[in-house]
Amino acid sequence: ISTTFFRSRRRIAKKLKKCNESERALNLLEMLASHLETNKEFKKTLEVYKNMLYYTQYDTEIRKKIINLYRLLHKESEHMEEYIEISGISRAEPIFKSIGRLEELLKYDIDQCFFFERYGMGRVVDTIPSKNEIVIDFEKKKRHFLTLDVARGLLTPINKGHFLYIKHNNIDELKR
Fold first, then answer.
1. pTM higher than 0.85
2. Which one of 72, 91, 151, 168 counts the least CB within 10 Å of its CB?
3. What backbone phi and psi angles, to 5 degrees, belong to 55?
């Protein structure tokens, strides 16, 4: 499915909601989510389900789908079940706050890379979700403990395509 098609369906759903046709908008988004899930485009499917939350007050089934998609997208995360519990997404807590907390925890999950001006490039080597702490190995300092609140203000996320990530993890590729 093309990105243009994906965006146009979301725009149509928004226009339907403005016309007090939330049920039709929800049906359209359900069809889109089903199509994306069939094509194994799970990130886009997750985004559609998040958008569906704006069109209904009954989020129980959507919440379950969102949880399953997070589990699928982050199946390598050894703390996923703990993150789900801490975030409150599996309970009847406000869904948007729960999703925000879950995404924040996943942002600082094991193997995520960050840059800290004082210590250089670093990789999260352990997390302690119950204490909201991470353990990160920097170039200049190993086993550095940080709370998520402090990490948010100090660390710059580095993705796998970033120059520093390639330099730190695959220097031969960079030389080529």
1. no
2. 91
3. -110, 5
